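Hi all, long-time lurker, first post. I run a small reading group and we've been trying to get comfortable going from sequence to structure in the token notation. Rather than ask abstract questions, I figured I'd post a concrete chain and ask someone more experienced to write out its structure so we can walk through it together at our next meeting. Sequence below, copied exactly:
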Amino acid sequence: MKSSIKKLAAPLGIALAGALALSGCAGPADSETVSDDGLPIVRMQGVVADPMGIPVLLIEEMGLDIKHGFDLEWQEGDPAGGTQPFLMGQAELGPGDGVSAAIANAEGHDTVAYYPFMTNTASIVASAESGIRTPADLKGKRVGHFGSDSGTTQAITLTLADGWGIDVGADMELVESSPAVLPELLAQGEVDAIFDYEPYGDRAMQLTDGVRVLTVADYWQDTIDWAPPLAMLWSNRAWMEENPQTAQAVVAAFTEAQQIIIDAGYSTFTQEPYKSFLNLADDAELDRLVAYCNELPCYTNTWDAADVEHMNDWLAMMRERGMLPETVGTDPIATVETVTAGG
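-- Answer (accepted) --
Happy to help. Here is the structure in token form:
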């Protein structure tokens, strides 16, 4: 019988790296648990109700997990809240990215990020009245963010340092809130600009007649012809090595789900149950998200050795600037094929 666990908590944003500061090391996940249908159960925690989470819901709605030979059980909620159970082997898929994997491994875990959910949608939006039009204008301004260790803030911090020599912590006054509240703070004049991801960047622009001062994906695409993912499939390496066929089936299901959405021009977002899952402000905001994802694009649906090399270089830049600890143990970035090659 197909089963899923979901909607147990309100979504609060992309995984916070600070939630990885755990004591002890995770042991390998238990041997595969089997569903009533005899399929291996794959558990996933911290699914977010934004474009990152749509492929997860589509996999369930279209039975792509069953098609590929596993049973996906997922829980919607704050990714940071799902990090510890994942690292302790209580779930097979974690809520994170390459940065999360690097931090976890530096703390003694052995994890790997191996397939992108979506392209990084982080951007800086400034209100019209702030007078901010370029990244250099941010110096001395009040800027909202949702955690110095969040993937969004770290991506923007690295981008500003690389392109403009800006030290986020020293060159601006930081105000912390949640991703969904930041657009309201900008509209109220409590901050001059915000670091956020979609759809909140668009919402901030609509509320304040604002401008995008910087888009992370555009900067890196122009600079190195590659953009970092916002979030990735992330697992304990031991589970992947012990269950190679299931790990490969997971990637196959996510690949198919993303391609269905790409082929539909992201119009999937406008259909139920996906529209209700996104829970956007109105249809106009939803239409703008569809247009945005087509242009970016939100899903690249590719991940190979060249992507691994680029992601490792991205992490190396963060280490050089003291944003990440040195790598310990195995590499936190890989493809599913390289991790499961022996199985």
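A couple of things your group might point at:
Residues 116 and 232 are 4 Å apart (CA to CA).
Residues 1-31 have pLDDT under 50 and may be disordered.
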